[in-house]
Specification:
The structure holds two protein chains of two kinds. By secondary structure, chain A is of the alpha/beta class. Helix content of chain A is 36%, strand content 27%. The model of chain A has no long low-confidence stretch (mean pLDDT 96). Helix content of chain B is 33%, strand content 27%. Chain B has eleven helices and eleven strands. In chain B, helix 5 packs parallel to helix 6. In chain B, 52% of the residues are buried. A nine-stranded mixed β-sheet of chain B has the order 3-6-7-2-8-1-9-10-11, sandwiched between helices. A two-stranded antiparallel sheet of chain B has the order 4-5. Classes of the chains: A alpha/beta, B alpha/beta. Chains A and B meet through helix 4, helix 6, helix 7 and helix 9 of A and helix 4, helix 6, helix 7 and helix 9 of B.
Chain lengths: 292, 288
């Protein structure tokens, strides 16, 4: 099983547009959208959902006001400042947990002398297996203001591998999240290759170097492509040499092309509508195929 | 006043809005770069580095002489960061959230806490702007504790602009919680619209007044504006699709310096944000 993870460090460099294009060019891939808190790949691949599953992860502390004795030990021990005093309906002092600040550690639950804090499972979103015109797709949606995005990413990747095995496909194309934190780490650990999509800007360079450091940290081979390279050719050249210095190889350069956004507005990938960017992506795919 | 700049979708122009706002204000302002995974604000402001402070999280340390392997700690820990398999408890520091529960629950007093470095907060200055940048160490997964350390440097009475990370999950929540107003930056494309709706859901959940800045107007279609009109969300500023802006950005120049005609737009944005924040009962600072 081969897994190619498209990441970027900096957001908005074109990860999703390029992941969709590669999925169209690949021979029988499975597609996984691991950008679970701002997933967009479905806008290009129009998945028809075949399975839908709740994503339950962690727990949420809830004080039963009627049983709270108002001692405040929970608030003293909460390291996340998630528990606040308030007046109960009968005028007594009681405590309540702010679900947004709560990290589900369970310390308040364990040490409440009145055993007045419940700790139910937390529903953090959902994940789906769908059919698209390129093949099966596994994707997800994190609930608003929910936690555990890394675990949801791991679930999406695990299911994508299962779907690939079941359908006799051996390439998974993963659309990853921006940044270098928990969901990115969950997206790339154990993958064969990462493709870092960057742009010729000072922030694109800075963020690419950090994400390449992360790939090295996890010993994953990295390829880089500079998207919209012609916005600043000098910067594109500088970024390519920084990428090489960080152990990556250059998979391609993609020109700025309004057809990419025009295709997006039609719900299509640019390789379905054509143009200079599409040609550059096709060229890059031939390079990536030799490497995969 | 505390204003957070957030987006849902990455690369829509959060940092551009944050740094140009900071530059357009009269008087002292602090810019907090809370995109600790990929902090970019000071690449543009080029502030002179003043100091760097390490930030650490308390993680458990087990005293082998006292631990009898009862695994009370392992049963309490929700993150699988500590466990005993019949022998001395093992700590997996990279999974620890620092809740302190294991230390309290240990019946033999065998657990103490030791700091684990997760990143730094850098302080830099550029004229009247103080830039506080959180920078997480590569390989560290959890950003919120570092974001809280960055925000711990907010001073009462000093205008604070928070540059948020992209997305809608915990690092974004950690950044925008406590803000008086949120600016959501988007672009007029299907991706921009979709991620804006997710960001709106999140900010509404938090109950903070917010408005929208649409960047690169002209590049896509009119659906973002139609959505905002339907939802009654104020459009605070339209930034046109102007190749000169992209070129200035690419080489790290500030928009209001490279193209001074945009300065008035950012002053106007600040006035509009002040009106939003006044819903929480505070006065806006005077724009230059």
């Amino acid at each position: 099983m081969r897994e190619l993870v498209v990441i970027s460090g900096k957001g908005g460099t074109g990860k999703t547009s390029i992941a969709a294009a590669l999925a169209l060019l690949a021979d029988k891939p499975v597609v996984a959208d691991c950008d679970v808190d701002a997933a967009d790949l479905h806008l290009l691949l129009a998945p028809e959902v075949r399975e839908r599953h709740e994503f339950i992860s962690g727990h949420e502390a809830i004080v039963r006001a009627a049983d709270c004795i108002g001692c405040g030990r929970c608030a003293e021990r909460c390291r996340f400042a998630a528990i606040h005093q308030r007046k109960g309906i009968d005028g007594r002092i009681v405590y309540a947990v702010d679900p947004v600040a709560c990290e589900g550690c369970g310390v308040c639950v364990r040490f409440c002398p009145a055993k007045a804090i419940d700790f139910p499972d937390s529903r953090c979103g959902e994940w789906m297996v769908s059919d698209t015109r390129v093949g099966p797709m596994v994707h997800a949606r994190l609930a608003a203001a929910a936690e555990n995005s890394g675990k949801l990413v791991s679930t999406v990747r695990k299911e994508a591998r299962r779907v690939a095995e079941e359908s006799g496909r051996d390439l998974i194309i993963v659309d990853g999240p921006p940044g270098i934190g928990c969901p990115v780490i969950a997206s790339l650990t154990g993958a064969n290759w990462v493709l870092v999509v960057t742009e010729p800007t000072v922030s694109g360079e800075h963020d690419m170097v950090r994400v390449l450091e992360l790939a090295r940290h996890f010993e994953i081979a990295a390829a880089v492509c500079v998207n919209k390279y012609d916005i600043n050719l000098g910067m594109a050249v500088r970024i390519e040499s920084a990428a090489r210095a960080n152990g990556a190889f250059i998979a391609g350069r993609i020109p700025y092309d309004r057809k990419v956004t025009e295709a997006q507005i039609m719900g299509k990938s640019v390789v379905e509508t054509g143009g200079p960017a599409a040609e550059a992506i096709q060229q890059m795919w031939r390079v990536l195929c030799r490497m995969l | 006043m505390i204003v957070a700049v957030a987006s849902g979708k990455g690369g829509t122009g959060k940092t551009t809005v944050a740094v140009n706002l900071a530059r357009s204000l009269a008087g002292p302002v602090s810019l907090f770069d809370c995109d600790v995974e990929e902090p970019n604000a000071n690449l543009f402001l080029q502030g002179e580095m003043d100091r760097t402070d390490e930030v650490s999280l308390p993680v458990p340390a087990v005293d082998a002489a006292k631990c009898d392997g009862c695994n009370e700690c392992g049963r309490l820990c929700q993150y699988h960061a500590i466990a005993s398999f019949g022998s001395q408890a093992l700590v997996f520091a990279e999974l620890c959230h620092g809740c302190g529960g294991c230390m309290i629950v240990c019946p033999r007093g065998a657990i103490t806490e030791t700091p684990r470095r997760i990143g730094v907060v850098e302080t830099a200055r550029q004229g009247e702007i103080t830039i506080l940048t959180g920078r997480i160490d590569v390989g560290v997964a959890f950003a919120p504790p570092l974001i809280r350390a960055v925000k711990g440097r907010i001073e009462p009475g000093v205008t604070a602009i928070l540059d948020a990370p992209p997305g809608t999950s915990c690092p974004v929540i950690a950044t925008v919680t406590g803000a008086d107003a949120v600016i959501l930056v988007t672009e007029p494309t299907p991706f921009g619209l979709h991620d804006l709706t997710l960001a709106v859901e999140t900010v509404r959940e938090l109950g903070i007044p917010f408005g929208v800045v649409v960047n690169r107007v002209g590049v896509g279609d009119g659906r973002v504006h139609a959505y905002c009109a339907k939802e009654g969300i104020p459009i605070l500023l339209d930034i046109p699709d102007d190749r000169r802006i992209a070129e200035a950005y690419s080489s790290g120049r500030l928009l209001v310096d490279a193209l001074p005609e945009y300065r008035a737009l950012f002053s106007e944005l600040w006035r509009a944000v002040g009106e939003l924040a006044a819903k929480k009962g505070r006065e806006p600072e005077v724009a230059r």
